[in-house]
């Protein structure tokens, strides 16, 4: 650690302590994340190994940069670029200065764009973040990859004890171990709503059951009709209180219709893994800075429809539905050929492929609208 001088402690969590420090050689201010090793009988914690391996792969303007790894005195330090404050603290600072009026609307759009850009990059590298929250200046970066992990096709069984409680999706709260990138999108909806609500969390539960009940009170208690497969989740109870859904606009105020649509899209029970075509442009279609855009461009933030005429499987991937992943993989292969400008001119041949997959994997293809 002779190359770094600790300046002050800036945070502490389950997995370690974070210090503000200075690189003695360059003078650069960095963040040192000290990983606790004392209680580990088997060496470096798996969360640290996972964070290191993922961040060494991820190089993006909207993902925090891992600069160095130092092992000294039975301690492991991860050296990150230093971010002045997290989003939660930034919102609190702004509220204290402007009389609790919250973030500027254009700044909310900019942060939302940067959040989705970073998340798209992670998902494009087959990584679920699994711990999005408002703990991450006017350039927002994803951090805290200790709970992140790689995913593949087919999706594997994961632990359900992930994601900070207020931003945890209902399928995780109900014990699902077969989940997809949509759990991150649920967190995005919660974060955007919190920015709009002047820093007030959308679902501020104080326990898992309180958290799921707060979700039920807003979205309604789910059943098989509105959320197919919910009754098969380990922690779902038929005895749950029955609440009816209420309009999101009654809870999230001060946002235009398109922004409200973005939040509502992300926090639906049945958010698709691949969604059908919607009437607005796909996510990140425009790569310009949203802080200078008009309200109408909020639609550019909505989730991209990758396949327009495929009935997608829901955010929940039940064990008896994993074969659908092979179907999606087949479509991904076809999409790759198209993106590489290798066109399939014979439409009949493509239709034959669809029919074969339809017979192999069940009724998973809808008729074009």
TrEMBL record:
ATP binds at residue 33. SUPFAM superfamilies: Protein kinase-like (PK-like) (SSF56112). The chain crosses the membrane at residues 335-357. The keyword DNA damage does not apply. GO terms for biological process: G1/S transition of mitotic cell cycle; regulation of G2/M transition of mitotic cell cycle; regulation of gene expression; signal transduction. PROSITE patterns: PROTEIN_KINASE_ATP, PROTEIN_KINASE_DOM. Residues 4-283 form the Protein kinase domain. GO terms for molecular function: ATP binding; cyclin binding; cyclin-dependent protein serine/threonine kinase activity. It holds the Pfam family Pkinase. It catalyses: L-threonyl-[protein] + ATP = O-phospho-L-threonyl-[protein] + ADP + H(+); L-seryl-[protein] + ATP = O-phospho-L-seryl-[protein] + ADP + H(+). Keywords: ATP-binding, Kinase, Membrane, Nucleotide-binding, Phosphoprotein, Serine/threonine-protein kinase, Transferase, Transmembrane, Transmembrane helix. It is an enzyme of class 2 (transferase). The keyword Membrane applies. Belongs to the protein kinase superfamily. CMGC Ser/Thr protein kinase family. CDC2/CDKX subfamily. This is Cyclin-dependent kinase 1. The lineage of its organism: Eukaryota, Fungi, Dikarya, Basidiomycota, Agaricomycotina.
């Amino acid at each position: 650690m002779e190359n770094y001088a600790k300046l002050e402690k800036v945070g502490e969590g389950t997995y370690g302590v974070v210090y503000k420090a200075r690189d003695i050689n360059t003078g650069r201010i960095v963040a040192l994340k000290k990983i606790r090793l004392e209680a580990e009988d088997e060496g470096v914690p798996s969360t640290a190994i996972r964070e290191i391996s993922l961040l060494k792969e991820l190089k993006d303007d909207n993902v925090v940069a891992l600069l160095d790894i130092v092992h000294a005195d039975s301690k492991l330090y991860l050296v990150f670029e230093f971010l002045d404050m997290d989003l939660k603290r930034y919102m609190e600072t702004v509220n204290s200065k402007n009389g609790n009026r919250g973030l500027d609307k254009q700044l909310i759009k900019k942060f939302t764009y940067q959040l989705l850009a970073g998340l798209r990059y992670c998902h494009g590298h087959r990584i679920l973040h699994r711990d999005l929250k408002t703990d991450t200046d006017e350039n927002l970066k994803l951090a805290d990859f200790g709970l992140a992990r790689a995913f593949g096709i087919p999706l594997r069984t994961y632990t359900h004890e992930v994601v900070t409680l207020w931003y945890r999706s209902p399928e995780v709260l109900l014990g699902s171990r077969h989940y997809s990138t949509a759990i991150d999108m649920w967190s995005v909806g919660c974060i955007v709503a919190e920015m709009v609500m002047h820093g007030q969390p959308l679902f501020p539960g104080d326990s898992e059951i309180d958290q799921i009940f707060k979700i039920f009170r807003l979205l309604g208690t789910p059943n098989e009709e509105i959320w197919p497969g919910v009754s098969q989740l380990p922690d779902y109870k038929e005895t749950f209180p029955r609440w009816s859904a209420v309009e999101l606009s009654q809870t999230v105020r001060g946002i235009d219709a398109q922004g409200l649509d973005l939040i509502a899209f992300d926090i639906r029970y049945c958010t698709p893994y691949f969604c059908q075509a919607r009437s607005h442009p796909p996510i990140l279609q425009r790569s310009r800075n949203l802080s200078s855009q008009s309200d109408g461009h909020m639609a550019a933030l909505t989730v991209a429809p990758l396949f327009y005429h495929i009935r997608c499987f829901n955010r929940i991937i039940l064990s008896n539905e994993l074969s659908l992943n092979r179907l999606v993989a087949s479509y991904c292969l076809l999409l790759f050929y198209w993106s590489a400008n290798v066109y399939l001119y014979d439409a009949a041949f493509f239709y034959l492929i669809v029919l074969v997959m339809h017979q192999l994997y069940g009724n998973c293809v809808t008729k074009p609208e």
